[in-house]
Amino acid sequence: MRREKPVTEKTIAVVGESIMDLIRQPSGAFRPHVGGSPYNVARALARQGVPVSYMSPLSADAFGDALHDALVAEGAQVPECPRSSRPTSLAVVTIDESGQPAYGLYREGIADRDISADELLARLPPDVGVLHTGSLALVPGELPKMRRVLQTARARGVLVAIDLNVRLSAEPNRDAYVQGLIDLLPLGDIVKASDEDLDALGMGPNPRSAARQVLDRLEGGLVALTMGSEGAMLVTATGEVERPAFSVADVVDTVGAGDCFQAALLAALQRSGLLDQRGFAKAPTAALVDALDHARVAAALNVTRAGASPPTWEEVMAARA
């Protein structure tokens, strides 16, 4: 059951790719699932009961209809704008024996890139409090547009949340991709990265030290580090909190786990009131621990389901009890 929007709760706006994940089944057939990292975050925020607006264009094709309808069914806002005539992006996903996905991406001439910086800024809700983006929205070809959007949003007092979600295979100019991400970090207030992301950025083999390097590029921000089976941590200028991974019996696949973590983290920070401030240096430790616990349980519940299937706030709270 979704909550009604409290009058004091601001909208989280989401920009980035929407993709139809074609996930290979044991039979060899491919089953479609709505996906794309920022799109998954938008759906997961809606299931967490957070007011959310997905701002990137959706295609007018059948896959675009499915992506649109899945958002609306969760209660997410989709701006009343004409659909793109370009096709929906596709990802061919194969799952290994440990549940880890590998992606083949089709990203040229597709709908979610069919928008300018001015058009994105015009779609920002009047009550926006946080702008979330990341993943394939931050490849070099998209970066000038996204840099302008993030700079303008921050100038208006909007917090910026970035999930690096590095996809080196999606960009032929890897050096430009990596440097572009590093240069973008100062525009983030909340930056999420996995240990694999930080390794791809060349920040050394120690993820905890690498997370501190990311924090040094922020202005009083917060870094969320996920480390797979080793758990997760939140890092601020005044300290860090770390929690082990939440154990589940049956892992189906890990598709969308990081997206569910990010959405649940933002939802918990919003409910605690921490998103009403730009700096996190004075955030109470108890509130950070609670937010981290909520995020890690949400990610764990997602991996027990096929594809990105975010849990609701109530499901996470029941699992935490």
Structural summary, described in words:
- With 321 residues, the protein is an alpha/beta fold.
- Helix content is 35%, strand content 20%.
- The protein is built from ten helices and twelve strands.
- It has helices at 37-47, 62-74, 117-123, 143-155, 174-184, 195-200, 207-216, 257-272, 285-302, 313-320, and strands at residues 11-14, 19-24, 30-35, 52-54, 89-95, 101-106, 128-134, 159-163, 190-194, 222-226, 232-236, 239-243.
- Strands 4-1-7-8-9-10-11-12 form an eight-stranded mixed sheet, sandwiched between helices.
- Helix 1 crosses helix 8 and helix 3 (117-123) runs parallel beside helix 4.
- The longest helix has 18 residues, at 285-302.
- The model is unreliable at 1-7 (pLDDT under 50).
Report the sheet with the most strands, covering strand number, pairing sense and barrel closure.
8 strands, mixed
Work out the helicity level. 25-40%
User: What is the chains' assembly state?
Assistant: single chain
- Summarize the helix and strand pattern as letters: EEEHEHEEHEHEHEHHEEEHHH
Strand arrangement in the largest pleated sheet:
4-1-7-8-9-10-11-12
CA(first)-CA(last) distance: 18 Å
